Amino acid sequence: MSTYGIDLGTTYSCIARLDSNGNPEVIRNNEDDSNTVASVVFFENENNVIVGQAAKENVETDGDRVVQFVKRSIGKRDTRTYEFDGKTYTPVEISALILGRLKNLVEAQGGTIEDVVITVPAYFGLEERAATRQAGELAGFRVLSLINEPTAAALSYCARQFQEDRTILVYDLGGGTFDVTVVKMSMTQRGDGRDVQKITVLATGGDDRLGGKDWDDRLYSHILRACCEENGITPEDVEAETRQDIRSKVEETKRKLSKKQSAKVRIDVNGSRTEITIKRSEFEQMTSDIVAKTMNFVESTLEKVPADAIDVVLLVGGSTYMPMIINAVENKFPGKVQQHDPDQSVAKGAAIYASMLVEEETGSATDNTASGDSKAPTRPEQLTSKFTVEDQTPRSFGPGVMDTSGAKPKYVLENFIKIGEKMPATFSKTYYPLEDNQELVRLRAFEDMSTEETVIPSVDEDGNPQATDPAHNVKLLGELIVKLPENTGRNTPIKVTFKVDASGVHVEAVNTKTNELFETFLRTESEIDVEKSAVHQLRISSD
């Protein structure tokens, strides 16, 4: 059985496995001479869809047929769809095409790929996680699980370390997402008496719409503006080919500025050769607010874990090569900062985790050798048998129910499982129909960022809760429809259970009088066709 770890990135993606000695290795992208695949899709025509660097080269010249940064849209309620040659694509389907390209890398080198673990930002909500899993399944994988990107990076790092207790802060700045996570590495004893390293997530924060793309956009705008000023034109006068030339040189320029104090950019602007010199100090000044934003997330995360408790800071993600990032983090944690495979550690950690899951499932180590390789892992003890991982819930979760204890009934969200609890997490509670002879119950499941026991959401003009509530960061995940028998009394107990792990949320309800189980979870508004009436709600307490 072949297992792989996949870092499905906003700008670049990476796939890894364990080699014949049980060590994580990245699958090389020989076509692009790289360890990664650009997360870009170009729909050249109905018969040819290109994924990778070749697609990225068409961003400006054929931008209306190129899709990139789709990770920022996956699982979002306000997401857009894409139409090419009469066919509509969702962010899930675009992501599946990128995952399919990674699958092709493995197969082109004689390997087979079946089981995978896919990484997600720690700050992803459940809808984004469910959509990521769906993309993996659409690409033909059996998705064993998802794992948070910083947790995967920490797992990769810990695999190389001595067996000693450490508290690690992972500063993960990718192409389109940012996470800051604190993990504890410690030794613990398994049930069989063997010592293993335990990785426990202590705190997390971040923004799933903040990343290296924001630096790229600033640099692109700066170069475009400089070209216009040099040639006495406006941005509207710049041809598409010139824009593509600028866009293609942004990433290269950013890399040069990570090594040199200045970089020259030569651009043909409407037939005129223009040379722009950009100083590192200029680039740092024009993006200083973005750096500060990431450090604000670091500060807020350290409210749960004091800075002096941090032993090591890991810089993860390609964007952490920038000196401005290294300096900002080093100033906060002098002498503690390390770069650990910034481009590859997440995929490697996911590969370790994938093999851990298969070992748990089958009781044996996995064989990841490609056709023609010598036999599988020769190490007497598998790397993956030395670890256990304990992660945290990224949000708070619970049902929306009626509170009838006051003079006027009100709709509230009860946070069964709060943000920061150990995953997997399970919680159950008994509720009751709002009225006698109620034919059905609309059990709505929500996520939010509150640590309070209850949240009172915004409601519409009919008194029904809004699907989203920015004031409380509330989001409707979906509904569970519970059908009740005739003559059901309002004191009939309905047991509601929420189960949360890194892959998603499972909601179920049981009519304890009939033992009938309901667990068909409707995830989108288009699936929910039940009349939105308050009479279909559950209430907190019996008479």
What is this structure, in a nutshell?
The chain is α+β, with helices and mostly antiparallel strands.
Keywords:
543 residues; alpha+beta; Nucleotidyltransferase, domain 5; Actin, Chain A, domain 4; Substrate Binding Domain Of DNAk, Chain A, domain 1; 3 domains; seven-stranded mixed sheet; seven-stranded antiparallel sheet; globular
List strands and helices in order, with pairings:
Layout: E1 3-7, E2 12-18, E3 24-26, E4 37-38, E5 40-45, E6 48-51, H1 53-56, E7 66-68, E8 82-84, E9 87-89, H2 91-108, E10 115-120, H3 126-138, E11 142-148, H4 149-158, E12 166-173, E13 178-189, E14 195-207, H5 212-231, H6 240-257, E15 262-269, E16 272-279, H7 280-286, H8 288-301, E17 312-316, H9 323-332, E18 337-339, H10 345-362, E19 387-392, E20 396-403, E21 410-414, E22 422-423, E23 425-433, E24 440-448, E25 454-455, E26 468-469, E27 474-483, E28 494-501, E29 504-511, E30 516-518, E31 521-522, E32 538-539
Parallel strand pairs: 1-10, 10-11, 12-17, 14-19, 17-18
Antiparallel strand pairs: 1-2, 2-3, 2-4, 5-6, 5-7, 8-9, 12-13, 13-14, 15-16, 19-22, 20-21, 20-24, 21-25, 23-28, 23-32, 24-27, 26-27, 27-31, 28-29, 29-30
Helix pairs in contact: 2-3, 4-10, 5-6, 8-9
